[in-house]
Amino acid sequence: MNFLSHFYFDRSITNPERIMGMVLPDLVKNANKEWSLRPEKNPEKFSTDKNLYRIYEGWKRHLEVDRYFHSSDFFCLHTQNIKSLIGPVLVNTEVRPSFVAHIALELMLDSILLTEGIITTERFYYFLSRTDKRALDKFLTLNKITDTKPFFLFLDEFINSAYLSSYKDSVHIVYALGRICMRLWVNPFTETQKLQLTAVLVPYLESLRNDYMTIFDQIESKLNPYTGS
């Protein structure tokens, strides 16, 4: 799941460190694709500080949500459907339709959460900006990121740009897809392909509104309630 879909599961929580931890795996991946953190292998490192442990709790929650999501019938059904729609558009290109379908579904869910008023980006960014940076820096350092400055530069830009707010416009999904695919392929979509992808993905997003909440309900029913402060 993407940033805002993960935030959905902590939408009623007011602890910034917990919320930061919940989206931190994706933030780290976006800041530097070479970084590979595995804090779950050494949980004892994070038990000495309350805010540090809240970040770790959020990190574990993220992994748990992704595990349920990626193994769900919902994920399999819709990624296959989307893949079949975009496959003809991406034929004879290096871009993998399965990857695009995966990311497109996650972006669609974020977009629907916003347009249906289930969550707000203002609340999301507010809590990220309130995170204890000392604890966050220590969390990264304990995970062998020796120079944390690039991450914090990325984080500041991520918060200040409020880029996720643009997901309210369903047409923006293809632009966001292009940005993500550019991490793997140079100029992944031609202008014609962008128009073709928009023509198939926007209607699919609208049809997804009929049952999108089923996956959130299914995952939420499996998660333990938050007991922190």
Overview features:
229 residues; mainly alpha; 11 helices; 0% strand
Walk me through the structure:
This is DUF479 domain-containing protein. The protein is 64% helix and 0% strand. By secondary structure, the chain is mostly helical. The protein has one domain (3-222). It is globular, with a radius of gyration of 18 Å. The mean pLDDT is 94.
Helix/strand/pairing class, anyone?
Answer: mainly alpha
Q: Roughly how many Å apart are the termini? A: 25 Å
Shape annotation: globular
Radius of gyration: 18 Å
Could you give the count of β-strands? 0
Q: What is the total number of structural domains?
A: 1
Mean pLDDT: 94
Task: Determine the strand fraction and express it as a percent band.
Answer: under 5%
Q: Which bin fits the share of residues in helices?
A: 55-70%
Helix and strand pattern:
HHHHHHHHHHH
Largest sheet: none
Low-confidence stretches: none
Number of DSSP helical runs: 11
Protein name: DUF479 domain-containing protein
Question: What topology does this entry show?
Answer:
Elements: H1 3-8, H2 16-31, H3 50-70, H4 73-86, H5 97-115, H6 121-129, H7 133-142, H8 149-161, H9 172-181, H10 191-208, H11 213-222
Helix pairs in contact: 2-3, 2-6, 2-8, 3-7, 4-5, 5-9, 9-10
